[in-house]
Amino acid sequence: MVEKFVGTWKMVSSENFDDYMKAIGVGFATRQVGNRTKPNLIVTVDDQGTICMKSQSTFKTTEIKFKLNEPFDETTADDRKTRTVVTLENGKLVQKQSWDGKETNIEREITDGKLIIHDMGKRMSLYL
């Protein structure tokens, strides 16, 4: 049920985000900015089932629009060009990104009224 993710989520804390960015190849200068950025995440769903996730901060705003289970091209906040698919698995939104022979899986789940984002392989957690 995607509707539970709809809303505006404010970042309160971040753990291991620098390690996550290092692991996916983000350069030092971009990591410095990324570590200081506390974006809002705005999630909407339209009548056709298209999901929009907008990450909005004073540094950069990025937006992706997609339908569940349909692959699409994504340009990430750190300018990686990925082939991405988002699925709903066990109540979690799972975003699988592939680029240059690499892959990352970002999971979003609602726990105790908070949106928690993590990448199991990189142990990055954001609490919004």
UniProtKB/TrEMBL annotation:
PROSITE patterns: FABP (PS00214). GO terms for molecular function: retinal binding; retinol binding. InterPro entries: Calycin, Fatty_acid-bd, ILBP, Lipocln_cytosolic_FA-bd_dom. Residues 7-24 form the Cytosolic fatty-acid binding proteins domain. It comes from the Eukaryota. Keywords: Retinol-binding, Transport, Vitamin A. Belongs to the calycin superfamily. Fatty-acid binding protein (FABP) family. Cytosolic CRABPs may regulate the access of retinoic acid to the nuclear retinoic acid receptors. This is Cellular retinoic acid-binding protein 1. It comes from Amphilophus citrinellus.
